[in-house]
Design a protein that fits this description.
There is one protein chain. The chain is mostly helical and 145 residues long. The protein is built from five helices and no strands. It has helices spanning 9-35, 46-49, 53-83, 87-108, 117-141. Helix 3 (53-83) packs antiparallel against helix 4.
């Protein structure tokens, strides 16, 4: 099997997720310092959230980073598989995912978790598009019986 024309878009699009994750990680570190939460404690305790905006923002930022980490394997595999037949579409959906994770993170780190919903909804649409496309491609690649 040879790679289709345009498959070079796939690695370029996947790299965008790496940049988002690195940026999110630095943001978590900054909020961790402001909240005074030492490593290896992942989140600020619930009791501290009422007294500290910094603690709440740390938890929001940490959760934004964590959900991106949770979704990344699905996005990576779906992008690679979908790219076997539809590289431009797969790359576009992957980049859309990355961009909407930035929007999601900016809105979530505000300390008002409900503000994350727009970025969350659009990034989930990107994931669904990738999964649907990858599923179709997987069936097309399946050998005949």
């Amino acid at each position: 099997m040879s790679l289709p024309e345009g498959y070079g878009y796939i690695p370029s699009s996947l790299i965008t997720i790496g940049w988002v994750l690195i940026w999110q990680g630095y943001m978590v570190g900054g909020y961790r310092k402001k909240a005074g939460i030492e490593y290896s404690q992942l989140y600020a305790e619930k009791a501290g959230l009422k007294d500290s905006t910094a603690a709440l923002r740390l938890n929001c930022m940490q959760r934004a980073h964590q959900t991106t980490l949770e979704q990344t394997p699905v996005v990576f595999v779906s992008t690679v598989v979908a790219g076997f037949k539809y590289p431009a579409l797969a790359a576009a959906l992957c980049v859309a995912y990355s961009l909407t994770r930035v929007v999601y993170t900016i809105r979530y780190k505000s300390g008002k978790p409900k503000k994350r919903m727009y970025g969350s909804a659009v990034s989930h649409l990107s994931i669904l598009g990738l999964l649907f496309t990858a599923t179709c491609v997987a069936f097309q690649l399946f050998p005949p019986c």
